[in-house]
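User: Can you predict the 3D structure for this chain?
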Amino acid sequence: MQYHPDVIHYFENSTHACSLPPAADVVTAKQGSIALGEMLQLQLQVSAGVIQQAAFKAYGAPHLIAGAQWLCEQLQSKTLQQASAITYRDVIARFTISKVKQHSALLIEDVLLAALAQCQQEQLSCQPA
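Assistant: Here is the predicted structure, written as structure tokens:
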């Protein structure tokens, strides 16, 4: 299978593939299932309503790992509102993902929305000052 050059680049340079240390200002969201072939965990460190750091752990196809890396880069220094504007369509466009693999982009959007919802629930650590 031929991958888009950006998929290869982000897959091979996954600097955000890690865990953030547990802290009051870190939220963790997980979507998918290893048993079903794809799982993605996203962690956000948020201070005063701005994403300071983003990290991920993934199990799945190169598109999922590359997309998660790209997402983490995009989230750096964004407000929660700006982050909520990122959709699966952005991932598909960035990596020219075929219809057969678009479920990876949907999973990326799902985990982002879950992390942002958790930020809203934990108002003390995620509310703007």
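The two ends are 48 Å apart (CA to CA). Residues 124-129 have pLDDT under 50 and may be disordered.
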